[in-house]
Amino acid sequence: VILVLAVVASLGVGAAAAVGKQDKFLAPVHPSCSTSGNYTDGSQFKKNLDELLAALPAAASRNDGFYIGTVGDSGSPDQVFTLIMCYADHDAAECLECLTGAPAGIMALCPGSRDVRAAYDACILRYSPVSPFASTADLEIPFYVKYTAPILVDPVAMARAWLPLMADLTGQAAGSLARAASGSTPYDASWRVFGLAQCTRNLNASECSRCLSSLVGKLPELFQNETGGAVKAYSCYVHYQIGPFEITLPPASEPPPQSSPKPGGQSLQVWEASSSSRTRLLIGSSIGTVSFLIILVGVLVCLLVRRRQKHPITANKQAKGQEPEDGKFSDGDDPAMEDDFEKGTGPKRFRYVELAIATDNFSDEKKLGEGGFGSVYRGYLKESNLEVAIKRVSKGSKQGKKEYASEVTIISRLRHRNLVQLIGWCHGGGELLLVYELMPKGSLDTHLYGGKNAAVLPWPVRHEIVLGLGSALLYLNQEWEQCVLHRDIKPSNIMLDASFAAKLGDFGLARLVDHGRGSHTTVLAGTMGYMDPECMTTGRTSAESDVYSFGVVLLEIACGRRPLAVAEEEQMAHLAQRVWASYGVGRVLDAADARLEGEFDAEEVERVMVVGLWCAHPDRSLRPSIRQAVGVLRREQPLPTLPERMPVATFLYVPLLV
Ligand SMILES: *[C@@H]1O[C@H](CO)[C@@H](O)[C@H](O)[C@H]1NC(C)=O
Ligand SMILES: *[C@@H]1O[C@H](CO)[C@@H](O)[C@H](O)[C@H]1NC(C)=O
Ligand SMILES: *[C@@H]1O[C@H](CO)[C@@H](O)[C@H](O)[C@H]1NC(C)=O
Questions:
Q1: Which residues does UniProt assign to the signal peptide (predicted)?
Q2: I need a labelling partner for 181 at 20 to 30 A (CA). Which of 58, 416, 454, 656 fits?
Q3: How large is the angle between the packed helices 626-633 and 459-474, nearest 10 degrees?
Q4: Which structural domain range is residue 593 located in?
């Protein structure tokens, strides 16, 4: 039995949405693929397999997330069998998404394999020429998931709670027709532990029980200080955690777990809601796993780039709001793209030589700094008498090209006084350059953390920055024709003009989505500390993720501290946790930046901090919309009342690979 500890369960790469559903691409974690007797393209086996895989999503929804099927003449060597199952703590939509993306991913990772086992965050997919699927349990564990929350776990009390619970559920699941069971048991006076046990329904009761017992036996070594864990095997699945989680697939016979009685009704509610958002983190530990993942990611990137080059998307489609492509701005110019931008009064295309002159041929003296994917230079455009900042995207960086595309397609169409204005762009001659208005005061972080001798940014200036940033986000998320997700809101991306007005910049990670919908790129994007915990674990971003980062920045501005910093006395804690602790005892102002020496409007500071906490709520569904948050900041609406204790969250953990 090989144990692999994965970093991101939904690790996978969404291919360009515009190419269509077929191209959705979800990579399994540590798949197992046969390496001999491979089928060839065009063979009957391949045709049968394609037919079978194409039918999976529909088959699974008809069969409550479990299905065994076959295509091909019975007894022929080209007959293919498949088995799929959705893990019962994922809902039908996640299951469908998993089964829709799985075939392309597994085909890319194991081309030619006849016998394949693959596990994903939400589903299992197996296919094989051997019939029928062995009704013997397969005990191999492709991966497991650790759940953490900022509450102190007593491993002894924890084991006392979940060991009997899981043993009980093992028996119940094995004895039920759906081969699944859920339940709960008290952990301490306040909390309960909830559990789920599930087998594939081809197993008989004794095999199901054998499979689950084997996984339950692994729990003590896998999870020690966690608030919960899940182990995903090819034949069965166990999941337990403090606090309830949603179980939406069968068994329908079991009502979803009810929460335990809890002193102080308010925080009970929060527990339920926040646990249902299924926040979780997987922690990478062994070097082997880390390198496996790096290889996996590398393979995926290569595959994708190749796939994408086969399916070029026109610039028009991009402009309609699909994800920008990489690889298309390389050397050749794209006439459609130029068309899009050379119309109108917006940013214009520059010639390389103009920009080279403006920056003394990109001399070191003109360099303002190093950004994520390139350097930024100060330049002077003689013709228009403009001071500009020119970002030169690193040559040969795939991500850089992607970010360039994103900036040009998205930011060039936005106009708002609190957004850094793109003046123009230049691609050709192997260079990708972006030209922005110059921000004389640099970025917010240099002022917040300028060092001992730097001037302290006075509160009224900070407050204006807060309001400016809020209206920029309101515009991006709600007021513009499409919803723009910035996805990387942090002080180093908040620029300050000559009068210290905030202008949000760096749209390299931005995405356009239709209003009310999330983005399903599953590549992690963003910066630790500012990233929505849910986004780190599921890869899904939405307007709520930007609200989260906004909240963290508000706290930072009010407290003058970075979000993730090791305090003198204790271990790592997120800024939101510290501020929430002060808030809980009614002394939120204690957390205000000491360097301000009390020179501030206390009501304003409190408002900023409370809105910051509200936005940084671990549960997306309890965060305000950006409109509500801005309303409170502008004193148009009253302050919300938040629970005294910070609800469950996962960002205590710092995954190794983010
Ligand atoms: C069969 O396909 C797998 C990938 O699915 C590959 O690793 C293996 O080398 C192939 N075997 C042969 C004999 O071609
Ligand atoms: C259950 O299935 C296993 C494996 O196929 C078999 O060995 C065992 O006899 C079966 N048990 C019962 C009670 O049918
Ligand atoms: C769990 O926590 C205890 C106490 O903090 C510590 O001694 C122990 O090493 C931890 N175990 C693991 C596996 O991290």
A1: 1-17
A2: 58
A3: 150
A4: 441-658
Answer whether 219's CB lies under 8 Å from 230's CB: no
pLDDT along the chain (658 residues), means of 10: 28 29 67 91 92 88 83 88 90 85 87 92 90 81 80 78 90 89 86 91 92 91 84 93 76 38 24 26 30 35 34 29 34 40 64 86 85 79 87 74 76 84 80 86 87 84 95 86 81 90 80 54 56 60 84 94 66 79 91 91 94 90 91 92 75 32
CA distance 85 to 102: 12
Q: State whether 397 and 303 are in the same domain.
A: no
Question: Which residues have CB under 8 Å from 514's CB, separation 6+?
Answer: 321, 482, 483
For 433, phi then psi, to 5°, come to -130, 140
The DSSP secondary structure of 513-524, one letter per residue, reads E-TT--B---S-
- Which residue in 433, 545, 528, 554 sits closest to 483, CA to CA? 545
Contact 328, 398 (CB under 8 A): no
Tokens of 207: 């095999």
Structure confidence at residue 280 (pLDDT): 30
Q: Model pTM?
A: 0.47
Calpha distance 149→537 (Å, rounded): 14
Ligand 3 pocket list (CB less than 6 A): 224-225
The position carrying tokens 């409007």 is 601
Under a CB-based contact definition with an 8 Å cutoff, are residues 442 and 503 in contact? Answer: no
- Residues making up the binding site for ATP: 391
Domains of the chain: total: 3
Is 488 marked active-site? yes
- Whether 413 and 466 share a structural domain: no
- C-alpha distances (whole Å) from 69 to each of 19, 53, 128, 421 are 28, 10, 11, 56
Residues 479 and 381 in one domain: no
- Helix pair 626-633, 602-615: axis angle to 10 deg: 170
How much is the pLDDT for 611?
96
DSSP 572: E
Q: Give the CA distances from residue 234 to residues 31, 41, 127, 173, in Å, rounded to whole numbers and listed in that order.
A: 10, 27, 12, 16
Report yes or no on 377 lying in a domain.
yes
Pocket flag, ligand 1, residue 113 (CB < 6 Å)? yes
Identify the pLDDT of residue 353.
83
Mutate to test the pocket of ligand 2, among 206, 210, 211, 236 (most ligand atoms within 8 A of CB): 206
H/E stretch holding 558 reads helix 543-559
Answer whether residue 259 is part of any domain.
Answer: no
Among 438, 461, 491, which residue terminates a domain? 438
**How many A from CA of 498 to the centre of ligand 3?**
51
Q: Does the beta carbon of 136 lie inside 6 Å of ligand 2?
A: yes
